[in-house]
Write a structure and sequence with these properties.
Shape of chain A: globular
Largest sheet of chain A: 6 strands, mixed
Number of domains of chain B: 1
Strand order of the largest sheet of chain B: 1-9
Largest interface: A-B, 47 and 33 residues
Distance between the termini of chain A: 40 Å
Structural class of chain B: alpha+beta
Number of helices of chain B: 5
CATH architecture of chain B: 2-Layer Sandwich
Oligomer: heterodimer
Number of strands of chain A: 18
Strand order of the largest sheet of chain A: 2-1-6-3-4-5
Distance between the termini of chain B: 46 Å
CATH architecture of the largest domain in chain A: Orthogonal Bundle
């Protein structure tokens, strides 16, 4: 078989049963790979009202048809489960080298179910799969566990997936790592893995990926790798990492200062990629087959945290426990906090988001030191943040409340609507460090519409509006109109989000990195079709790519619909629609902007063919996409969603 | 040396991405994998370290010296050591003798294989061509060493200057 390995590995940790299931041609053609395979399993095998931590719940790891090949950046893995944070559909993907290793071992997907009696890890040595004792690894940081497993198995060159202490303690936003530092951060996949008593999956793959047409593959890869050499976004990402965004974000006013109270700050350059490269950068890191190399490895040289080392940070990893909680004066504090969330194994975004929400509750007098157990949650108080991160990971004191995520914490503390106003979430998941009032209205729309908890920058990654101006003519080529290349406009944005969501979905099915296709636009859909066809020997078309993307988006959307989540929940936090952007620095470009969601939503629904009242995928669309069984599932729910008893906007589900 | 050029490896620049590895295996075997690559990457993820190892085309090649059949020998026209698969008996002596561990046994044929500088490829060896970080370059050693001398000297001068100012 070309491209795909052609089999799924299923491990039931309750019974210890290990099975390998073939993936048929029709199945692969319908769902393509990675995210598609995973979403299909979650929809069919995890009932919508099951507790995400129930042993019957599944967690899936998927790679795609081009994983492990010479196409640009083919090391990614999608981790999918029912999200313990939102209670809805959840997935997250990560770079590194584990994805390629998994493919070389001969698997397209791993599905883990059940719960082991004691902590275990899975050892995949090509065909041989075994479940091994991990009691001695429990409580260890990923980098410690990585070392111990490699020593135990006697091979330093293997790659593995691991969780940290937060995952073991089922923190609702714990993440999943591979290669020690590369995180599938969002939606709390690590907690689900921890709930199964699974510490990690070590893998050695000694196979190869067969290529149907090597010459064609060589040609397209030669061409794309040349393109990358001069690509403007590649250069920025390679030299400064994703922190290259800091100064841009500050100029355009989407730098998340104090829980989005502001969008720019005079000290932003303290933590910019430029400053990072000059002061603490130890090494640049590349994921598998990556022509970009945006990964960082940081070594703190001065101050209280001197000597600390860790992989990262990224823009989205650094800003939440930095400026979002008001820390900006000493960048070493920010790097240190990023190191902490990494070691404990928590989503940096959600960690910073819940702490910043708590700080705003504290500022507004909704909570006092009585609730926080004496912690003075003042903006920029590094001492408190340094204490609080481990407390969240180990669920101690006030940390145990925050470990539940912002919206659940607001309810536990009884803070009412005002408390929820400051959590900056939709569908229970916090927005990343991007303010749609500056980053762009397309992003804002996709925060409202994302299928993994509503609010994420990676669902559409509509960089056509962010980096579009760096590629003149690109918007016209893709959308037929150049005007959408400006962030703060609604023109053309509904179609942009519709297109980019579909595109991003197939990119996630191929399991290649979206920095090659959306940030940098060096690889466009025709290129992806070309390399996929060269690898598989099949005749995929651009239209089929869009259709597969659309099918998966609709399936994921239907998962939410089965939870009674639809049009009412298609919102962004009110801060963005009500509060005009204040001035932070004198060169800021978006002062006074508010985010206009409603005018874009209607048009977007039309492109998607979502039912206007419920916001559910229409029956016509579902049938057209070959999802008749989904249409049947949703049929009785449509009127129920509109009935009085259901008419309350929900924050999270299960 | 072929065309007077050689593959040069700069470990400080290697990001460990293995673009060289997939390119090498695709070019030579028409499939992608680490086991069929002539160049290898060693990674220490915990410490953020990566190293690339490839054939250095030794002038006095230990692999050729130990080959019992003459399969592994210096090709005097090309000026590089090559393995003739027809003559190779798969004894692994060359793989054991290589000081860098970059001769491997092919999983399909059981015979030894090594770097051939992508003979016949117009753009030169694929590993250097695809390397995104400049860790692998295909250049004349003399020119590369001259550049290295200059860079290192400048770095030292800069450091000394900074020391005086500080």
């Amino acid at each position: 078989m070309y491209g795909w390995a052609g089999q799924r590995l299923r491990v039931d940790l309750s019974s210890g049963k290990i099975t390998k299931e073939p993936l048929s041609y029709e199945y692969r053609r319908k769902w393509m790979g990675g995210r598609g395979f995973n979403s299909d399993i979650i929809y069919n095998e995890v009932p919508p009202h099951l507790d995400p931590f129930d042993p019957r719940a599944r967690v899936c790891f998927g790679v795609g048809p081009v994983s492990g090949t010479a196409a640009p950046s083919t090391g990614r893995v999608t981790v999918t489960c029912k999200s313990p944070l939102t209670g809805g559909f959840g997935d997250s993907n990560m770079g590194g080298h584990w994805g390629a290793e998994l493919k070389y071992a001969g698997y397209d997907q791993i599905v883990v179910q059940g719960r082991a009696k004691n902590p275990v890890y899975i050892w995949i040595d090509d065909d041989k799969v075994e479940i091994r004792d991990a009691r001695h690894l429990w409580g260890k940081f990923p980098r410690e566990a990585d070392q111990m497993i490699k020593e135990e198995l006697g091979d330093e060159d293997i790659h593995m997936m691991l969780i940290g202490p937060a995952g073991e303690n089922m923190v609702r936003f714990a993440c999943t790592f591979n290669d020690v530092w590369r995180a599938a951060g969002r939606t709390g996949t690590g907690g689900v893995i921890g709930s199964k008593n699974l510490k990690g999956i070590a893998t050695r793959g000694s196979g190869t990926v067969k290529i149907a047409n090597p010459k064609a593959m060589m040609d397209v890869c030669n061409r794309l790798r040349q393109v990358f050499k001069n690509d403007p976004m590649k250069i920025g990402l390679n030299v400064y990492g994703s922190l290259c965004l800091i100064n841009v974000a500050n100029r355009d006013g989407w730098f998340p200062w104090r829980n989005f109270q502001g969008g720019a700050h005079p000290l932003a350059n303290n933590m910019s990629g430029e400053t990072h490269a000059k002061t603490v950068l130890k090494h640049r890191e590349g994921c598998f087959a990556c022509p970009i190399g945006c990964g960082r490895f940081t070594h703190i040289k001065e101050g209280k945290w001197a000597g600390e080392e860790f992989g990262g940070p990224e823009y989205e990893h650094a800003v939440p426990t930095g400026p979002r909680v008001g820390i900006l004066e000493d960048a070493n504090d920010i790097w240190h906090n990023a190191r902490l969330t990494n070691d404990y194994g928590m989503d940096g975004i959600e960690t910073g988001a819940v702490i910043s929400a708590a700080m705003e509750w504290y500022e507004k007098g909704l909570i006092t030191t009585k609730e926080t157990g004496g912690l003075e949650l003042e903006w920029g108080n590094e001492e408190v943040v340094d204490k609080l991160i481990p407390m969240i990971a180990t669920r101690q004191g006030f940390g145990a409340i925050l470990a539940e995520g912002g919206d659940r914490a607001a309810d536990k503390l009884g803070l009412g609507d005002e408390g929820h106003y400051y959590t900056i979430t939709t569908r229970g998941m916090s927005l990343p460090g991007d303010d749609p009032r500056g980053l762009g209205f397309g992003y804002g729309l996709s925060f409202a519409m994302g299928t993994r908890g509503g609010c994420d920058h990676l669902r559409s990654l509509c960089c056509l509006e962010l980096s579009g101006a760096l590629y003149p003519g690109l918007n016209t080529k893709i959308l037929g109109d150049e005007r959408p290349n400006k962030p703060v406009t609604t023109v053309g944005k509904p179609y942009m989000v519709y297109y980019e969501e579909n595109q991003k979905t197939t990119t996630d099915c191929l399991q290649v990195c979206c920095f090659t296709t959306h940030w940098s636009y060096a690889v466009l859909t025709p290129d992806q079709v070309e390399y996929l066809n060269a690898v598989t020997g099949l005749e995929f078309t651009e239209e089929e790519f869009q259709e597969i993307g659309e099918r998966i988006i609709n399936l994921e959307r239907a998962y939410w619909a089965r939870l009674m989540s639809g049009a009412r929940e298609d919102v962004v936090p009110e801060r963005f629609t009500k509060e005009p952007m204040p001035q932070g620095v004198d060169y800021q470009t978006n002062v006074g902007v508010v985010f206009p969601l409603s005018e874009m939503l209607k048009k977007y629904y039309k492109y998607r063919d979502y039912e206007p009242g419920t916001g559910f995928p229409s029956e016509r669309k579902l049938k057209q996409l070959g999802l008749d069984y989904v249409a049947k599932d949703l049929a009785p729910l449509r009127s129920k969603y509109l009935s009085e008893s259901e008419k309350k906007k929900k924050k999270y589900y299960y | 040396m072929s065309n007077g050029k050689a593959l040069m490896y700069n470990q400080e620049k290697c990001t460990g991405c293995r673009s060289c590895v997939v390119g090498c295996s695709l070019y030579h075997d028409g499939e992608c994998g680490k086991v069929t690559s002539r160049v290898a990457v060693v990674r220490n993820e915990r410490f953020g370290e990566s190293f690339v190892v490839g054939c250095d085309m030794c002038t006095d090649a230990p692999c050729a010296a130990v080959c019992p059949t003459g399969a592994c020998a210096m090709d005097t026209t090309a000026g590089i050591t090559k393995i003739n698969a027809e003559k190779c008996i798969g004894c692994k002596e060359c793989a054991m003798a290589c000081p860098f561990g970059v001769i491997n046994m092919h999983y399909k044929t059981g015979k030894a294989f090594k770097c051939d500088l992508c003979e016949g490829r117009d753009a030169g060896p694929v590993c250097a061509d695809w390397c995104p970080s400049g860790a692998i370059t295909y250049a004349s050693p003399n020119i590369a060493l001259k550049a290295k001398r200059r860079t290192k000297l400048m770095e030292r001068l800069e450091a000394a200057k900074a020391g005086e100012e500080g």
